[in-house]
Design a protein that fits this description.
Elements: H1 3-6, H2 10-15, H3 27-40, H4 43-54, E1 59-61, H5 62-67, H6 73-85, E2 89-94, E3 97-102, H7 104-113
Length: about 120
């Protein structure tokens, strides 16, 4: 695998692939995109992604996200870290709080990969 590909997040990798219905993924493409799909395959992470993306301004404070679950703060932080490492969210620390923003280009890449068209 080239070093340039290794620097891509899974979300960035999804952007380079044709829709699944257009042509089969290569083994390399599937290996690059699988971590993105794994990141979203967990119900907590999928819900976190939805909460962040639908929050006013597309950004949510971790304090708001913690209150939406009956889970410990370290567990929520772990799930947010997985989303961040997959390239699905960006984060900014402001004082004691961390704010998460959905990466719209990552969401668009997922939609393009699975062949979604805007409604």
């Amino acid at each position: 695998m080239s070093t340039a590909l290794a620097l891509l997040t899974p979300a960035d990798s999804a952007a380079c692939c044709s829709p699944l219905s257009a042509q089969p993924l290569t083994t390399e493409q599937a290996e690059q995109v699988a971590p993105l799909m794994k990141a979203l395959a967990d119900p907590v992470r999928l819900r976190l992604m939805s909460l962040i993306a639908s929050h006013d301004g597309g950004e949510a404070c971790v304090c708001d996200l913690n209150d939406a679950f009956d889970l410990s703060q370290p567990t929520i932080s772990h799930h947010l870290k997985v989303l961040h490492e997959a390239g699905l969210v960006d984060r900014d620390k402001r004082g004691v709080w961390v704010y998460y923003r959905a990466r719209q280009q990552a969401l668009a890449a997922i939609g393009a990969l699975i062949g979604c068209t805007p409604i």
